[in-house]
TrEMBL record, chain A:
Protein name: Monovalent cation/H(+) antiporter subunit G
Leader sequence residues: none
Transport listed as a keyword: no
Organism in which the protein naturally occurs: Lentisphaera profundi
Family annotation (InterPro entries): PhaG_MnhG_YufB
Domain of life of the organism encoding this protein: Bacteria
Record Pfam families: PhaG_MnhG_YufB
TM helices/strands, residue ranges: 6-27, 39-56, 62-83
Keyword annotations: Membrane, Transmembrane, Transmembrane helix
PANTHER family assigned: ANTIPORTER SUBUNIT MNHG2-RELATED (PTHR34703:SF1)
Automatic annotation (TrEMBL), chain B:
Record localization: Cell membrane
InterPro entries: MrpF/PhaF-like (IPR007208)
Protein name, UniProt field: Monovalent cation/H+ antiporter complex subunit F
Coiled coil: none
Membrane topology type: Multi-pass membrane protein
Entry's transmembrane regions: 6-27, 39-58, 64-87
Organism: Lentisphaera profundi
Pfam families for this protein: MrpF_PhaF
Keywords, alphabetical: Antiport, Cell membrane, Ion transport, Membrane, Transmembrane, Transmembrane helix, Transport
Family membership noted in the UniProt record: Belongs to the CPA3 antiporters (TC 2.A.63) subunit F family.
Amino acid sequence: MSLLLSIILIIGAAFTTIAAIGLIRFPDFYTRMHAATKAGAFGGIIILLLCAFYFASLKVAIIVFVNIIFFYFTAPVAAHMIARSAYINRVKQWKGSKADELKGNITLKHHHDD
Amino acid sequence: MEELYIYPWAITTAYMLLISALAIATWRLIYGPSLFDRVVAMDLISAVVMCIASVFAIETRNSVFLEISVAIAIVTFLGTIAFARYLEDEEAE
């Protein structure tokens, strides 16, 4: 049981590290945002649930529940708003991107060469 | 029921992984081409700091550090949302 908890802790930390590696290895802003928000939130949730199992008390379970609500439900919202703001500000996509579904459906900012 | 126990080598490995994640995200924060890359790097840095607080709570068997994690999550979410809205509405023509 102790070995299982230790391995789960290392897996949760490894997911967060994989998110950071994706933050430097991907070529584009949008792919980097995708990797960082998704994998980072998942690694954090694994470590928080491990805390809930490790302390095994109702108080810690309630704290972990509130933490999961505020972290796992708001991280995708923040990522979506940052990506939309970047698209409006004309951040370039990678040359190998296949799709641009938002083209023509949103008003971009004008260039003002600064 | 036996007392749950997490080995110290696992805690040390988790600290090493999370500190390397902090270093990589800080590199992106410094050298990011655009402002938005830096915002995403700050978001990931806050997530890594939350994980470090959780591992520290496990290490010291003190559940107070999980409430730090809640506060960091709320403040980071509000900061990211405010940053996105500000950069959308910056039209000063």
